[in-house]
Amino acid sequence: MTEFTLFDMLRGLWSGLQWTLVLSLLAFVLGGIVGLIVLFARIADNRILQAVSKGYIELFQGTPLLMQLFMLFFGISLLGLDVSPWFAAALGLTLFTSAFLAEIWRGCVESIPRGQWEASESLAFNYGEQMRHVILPQALRIAIPPTVGFSVQVVKGTAVASIIGFTELTKTGTMIANATFDPFLVYGLVALGYFALCWPLSLFARRLEGAFHVSG
């Protein structure tokens, strides 16, 4: 059995925590960009775009993230292309995140009272002007709390990437636990690491929700 001090464990887990944070940020930012594109397709005045975007959302919301990562990691390899766990994890989490964010944001857009649409139509705004000047500014205000709240799910979702070999916090914890034969302590520290990342985000989302509810 390899001798690990508590400091050795913490140092190893800190490295994994950093990769968890990097993957979370990348997936959230890129997922937000893709999600915005999907959102505009979902609310577009075009049935084909609506159908394609709806199918995209249902595909990634209706299948487990683990299966999505497996399909990307092993599926791309079957095409004769080398794919690293890092690339597959980033791509999979980006697509997963984009589908959920697009649906969250669609709900925010559709929550805008119909009177706002009618008022902008009376000003002779076209669809693009309605969205840019009237609907999206109001929807953005509504969307901030649930968007921040969903970031917690993105952080926790990175743990699934350990299954395809990406060395984030969970994978690092597993390797240390196998080396030290002390899984209770190691996974307890892993849990604390996730808590340290997720709890501030959850608290921030609740405060934002309360603030926007009061001001609204």
Give an overview in words.
This protein has 216 residues and is mostly helical. It has one domain (6-214): MetI-like fold (Orthogonal Bundle). The chain is 82% helix and 0% strand. The protein is elongated and about 75 Å long. It starts with 5 loop residues before the first helix and ends with a helix. 30% of the residues are buried. Keywords: Amino-acid transport, Cell membrane, Membrane, Transmembrane, Transmembrane helix, Transport. The chain crosses the membrane at residues 20-44, 56-80, 86-105, 184-205. InterPro entries: AA_ABC_transptr_permease_3TM, ArtM/GltK/GlnP/TcyL/YhdX-like, MetI-like, MetI-like_sf.
Radius of gyration: 21 Å
Estimate the helix proportion, in percent: over 70%
> What is the CATH architecture assignment?
Orthogonal Bundle
Overall spatial form:
elongated
What labels would you give this structure?
MetI-like fold, 8 helices, 216 residues, 82% helix, elongated
List the helices and strands and how they pair.
Elements: H1 6-42, H2 47-61, H3 65-78, H4 85-110, H5 114-122, H6 127-157, H7 169-180, H8 183-215
Care to give the gist of this entry?
By secondary structure, this protein is mainly α. It is 82% helix and 0% strand. It is built from eight helices and no strands.
